[in-house]
Amino acid sequence: MHGNTKRSTACSFSQRRNLPTALMYTYKITNLMGAIDASKCPHPVVAVLFPGAELLACSVSPAEVTATFASPQTPADLGPLVRVELISNP
Prior knowledge:
Layout: E1 11-14, E2 25-31, H1 44-49, E3 55-60, E4 65-69, E5 82-88
Antiparallel strand pairs: 1-3, 2-4, 2-5, 3-4
């Protein structure tokens, strides 16, 4: 995540296997210091926040990263400059 990037592109990654949407847990990750580098998808911060978790889908934009899993996850604490919010839950 870089605070000075002016990139306006977005990317997405998906490994969804026809799971019912009731089984999806989606987290929104934001960098409170600025824009996110959207050149890599899935974004490397997902592996840092959710080590070992099986990622089903991910999207990356300069504003945020969203990561979707089939089970609830407990994100690693990266301090006050990285916010992780659960945005969908069955």
